[in-house]
Amino acid sequence: MKKNNAFTLIELLVVIVIIGILATISVVAYGGYQEKARIAKAQAFAKDSNIQMLAAHTEKESSMFGHWNFDGSDPNVAIDYSGEGHNLVKNTTNITLAERVLDTPTGIGLATRAISNYYVYHDPSGTTFNVADGGGVTLNGWFKVEDFSSASSILLFANNKYHLRIYNNGVIKFGVNTENGLKDITTPSNSFKHNKWYFVLATYDEDRGLMKIYLDGELVKKDTHSGKIIEFPGTNLAYTYGNTLLFDDFYKWTIPYRSK
Questions:
Q1: Would you state the pLDDT for residue 241?
Q2: Which contacts (CB < 8 Å, 24+ apart) does range 83-90 have?
Q3: Which value, in Å, is the radius of gyration of the alpha carbons in the chain?
Q4: Which residues contact 83 (CB under 8 A, 6 or more apart)?
Q5: Which CA distances in Å does 159 have to 68, 138, 166, 186?
Q6: DSSP secondary structure string, 110-133?
Q7: Averaged in consecutive runs of 10 residues, what is the pLDDT profile of the chain (260 residues)?
Q8: Contact, 215 vs 155, CB < 8 A?
Q9: Other Cβ atoms within 10 Å of 108 Cβ, number
Q10: Is residue 178 a contact partner of residue 225, using CB atoms and an 8 Å limit?
């Protein structure tokens, strides 16, 4: 009799199961690699863009206006590490205590859980954001939204003269008010996902008449605008609408960002 060397049905099923398990492990590992690569790219862009902005400020002999990285021991005060002294104080009305978080791409950040429409940090002195000599404005920093229970959260804004807003459908909106009116630009839906850290940079260039939004170093929205920015008092940071918003290492510059 000839010996049957064919696989049995059970053996084939075992092989198929093993292949499926290996494929699943490979997909998960690849997904983790992609996420690490995205964060690394965003960190590199954050570093390079901030170095470029610092050099531009030095050349123009103008101030940065503000840099808040939340590495201080008191979560109720957002210390300005730019040297300009624009510390922001936590608003306690309807806001639970800001929580320090350690899983940010840059060190220690903050998480806020608001139960109503109140800003988390504000400038008690109402310092005017003087951009008359800078030729524009740039806002940049890290954020993560853990849930989308409400419509939006605002990361930086001042009395509707400018804003950087995060929406529950993955949209980022950047608005600037100039002598020719308020102009908003928005990214496509699902530009970002919840429970992930992202680096956002939004800028308006008066001389070139351009508004831009970068996400993790990629230009995701560009449009035209014109006019001198209207000077405005005060700075509010992380105005939340019930969302759990995590943020870290935010800058407000008085000049535009220009990619190399």
A1: 60
A2: 86/123, 86/125, 86/127, 86/235, 88/121, 88/122, 88/123, 88/235, 88/237, 89/121, 89/122, 89/123, 89/124, 90/120, 90/121
A3: 23
A4: 64
A5: 20, 17, 17, 19
A6: EEEEBSSSEEEEE-TT--EE--TT
A7: 63 78 66 84 94 83 76 74 78 58 76 56 62 76 75 63 81 90 92 92 94 96 90 64 74 86
A8: no
A9: 17
A10: yes
According to DSSP, the residues that pair with 141 across neighbouring strands are: 200
Q: Are 213 and 39 in contact (CB under 8 A)?
A: no
Closest alpha carbon to 251 in 3, 58, 68, 87: 68
Helix, strand, or coil (residue 206): coil
Topology classification of domain 32-253: Jelly Rolls (2.60.120)
At 77, the amino acid letter reads: V
Torsion angle, alpha carbons of 90, 96, 100, 106, to 10: -70
Residue 75, classed as helix, strand or coil, is coil
Q: Which helix (H) or strand (E) holds 50?
A: helix 9-60
User: Residue 129's beta-bridge partner residues?
Assistant: 232
- Domain layout of the chain by residue ranges: 32-253
Question: How many beta carbons lie within 10 A of that of residue 202, not counting itself?
Answer: 29
CA distance 62 to 194: 36
Q: Which residues contact 41 (CB under 8 A, 6 or more apart)?
A: 216, 217
Q: Are strands 218-224 and 210-215 parallel, antiparallel or unpaired?
A: antiparallel
